[in-house]
């Protein structure tokens, strides 16, 4: 355990862009040692959401914004109930990464896009705080943009992530071979079509053929792109499948939409969901 604030280094490995060393990085296991932030960037695994949010509550001031870049579409419901809708900003990150070893992040390809927006604050429209964050991200060289419908934005990311994570973990393969084989390509497509159908049934403004668009997007990413779900599976870690394929299944049950492919992924990984290599 760390005692208060410590200095560390972070290495980002990228075969295309070159490596980036971030130094120093200040890390702590005691949020009280950080003071009151302008922004809390929330990026823990989904099962830790509620516990970590409650740990951070004491340092959140009246003007602190909370932006989650976690997977799934239910995380903001949890955070909004703890921090309040006025503090909450929704966001998604498109980047192919995994932790290769402690303190080292491996990034595949050049994609590094971040889309975010307001919920209740400023009536869900662009705000001074969101404009300031956008300017800071663009200055840092990150492809960032503001969304005028953050709920739709979350489902756009969720649709692709459900397909990528479910297919790569189920096939034990990166995206390249999956999209080239007609049978596995069809399964990838079906995973995303189910997510779109559920989202539309919930009132999300997704085009009916949005899964076709995401399949074309999958054709353009590096063949080596993988999912954190597959990496966690290979490493015997706990899995987020309950919130990915499982999330599509549970939400589909609520709105009467059949989700057999996502159910197959969720059921197939059930014995590994808590971690282990059995």
Which keywords apply here?
10 helices; seven-stranded mixed beta sheet; 278 residues; 22% strand
Description of the structure:
The protein is of the alpha/beta class and 278 residues long. Strand 1 and strand 2 form a beta hairpin. Helix 4 packs across helix 10 and helix 6 packs across helix 9.
Offer a quick outline of the entry.
The protein is an alpha/beta fold and 278 residues long. The chain has 10 helices and 7 strands.
Please specify the SSE layout and strand pairing:
Elements: E1 5-14, E2 20-28, E3 39-42, H1 49-56, E4 65-68, H2 75-83, E5 88-101, E6 104-118, H3 128-139, E7 143-146, H4 150-171, H5 175-180, H6 182-201, H7 210-220, H8 228-234, H9 245-255, H10 260-268
Parallel strand pairs: 1-6, 3-4, 4-5, 6-7
Antiparallel strand pairs: 1-2, 5-6
Helix pairs in contact: 1-2, 4-6, 4-7, 4-8, 4-10, 6-7, 6-9, 9-10
Q: Taking Cα atoms only, what radius of gyration do you get, to the nearest Å?
A: 19 Å
Round the mean pLDDT to the nearest integer and report it: 90
The helix tally amounts to: 10
**Strand content bin:** 15-25%
Per the principal axes of the C-alpha atoms, what is the gross shape?
globular
Largest pleated sheet:
7 strands, mixed
User: What is the rounded distance between the termini?
Assistant: 29 Å
Helix-strand topology string: EEEHEHEEHEHHHHHHH
- What percent of residues adopt helix (DSSP H or I)? 40-55%
Q: Specify the oligomeric state.
A: single chain
> What structural category characterises the helix and strand content?
alpha/beta
Enumerate the spans where pLDDT stays under 50 for 5 or more consecutive residues.
none
Number of strands: 7
């Amino acid at each position: 355990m760390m005692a208060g604030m410590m200095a560390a280094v972070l290495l980002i490995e990228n075969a295309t862009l070159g490596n980036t060393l971030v130094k120093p990085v200040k890390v702590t296991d005691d949020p009280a040692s950080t003071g009151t932030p302008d922004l809390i960037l929330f990026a823990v695994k989904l099962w830790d959401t509620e516990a970590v949010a409650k740990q951070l509550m004491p340092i959140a001031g009246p003007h602190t914004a909370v932006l989650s870049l976690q997977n799934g579409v239910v995380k903001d419901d949890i955070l909004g109930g703890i921090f309040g809708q006025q503090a909450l900003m929704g966001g998604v990150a498109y980047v192919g990464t995994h932790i290769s070893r402690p303190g080292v992040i491996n990034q595949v390809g050049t994609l590094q896009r971040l889309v975010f927006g307001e919920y209740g604050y400023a009536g869900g429209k662009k705000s001074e705080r969101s404009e300031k964050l956008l300017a800071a991200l663009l200055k840092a060289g990150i492809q960032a943009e503001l969304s005028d419908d953050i709920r739709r934005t979350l489902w756009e990311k969720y649709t692709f992530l459900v397909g990528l994570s479910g297919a790569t973990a189920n096939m034990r393969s990166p995206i390249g071979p999956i999209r080239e084989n007609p049978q596995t390509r069809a399964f990838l497509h079906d995973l995303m079509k189910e997510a779109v159908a559920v989202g539309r049934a919930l009132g999300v403004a997704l085009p009916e053929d949005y899964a076709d668009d995401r399949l074309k997007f999958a054709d353009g990413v590096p063949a080596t792109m993988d999912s954190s779900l597959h990496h966690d599976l290979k490493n015997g870690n706990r899995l987020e499948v309950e919130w990915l394929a499982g999330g599509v299944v549970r939400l589909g049950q609520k709105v009467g939409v059949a989700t057999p492919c996502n159910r197959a992924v969720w059921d197939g990984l059930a014995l590994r969901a808590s971690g282990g290599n059995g």
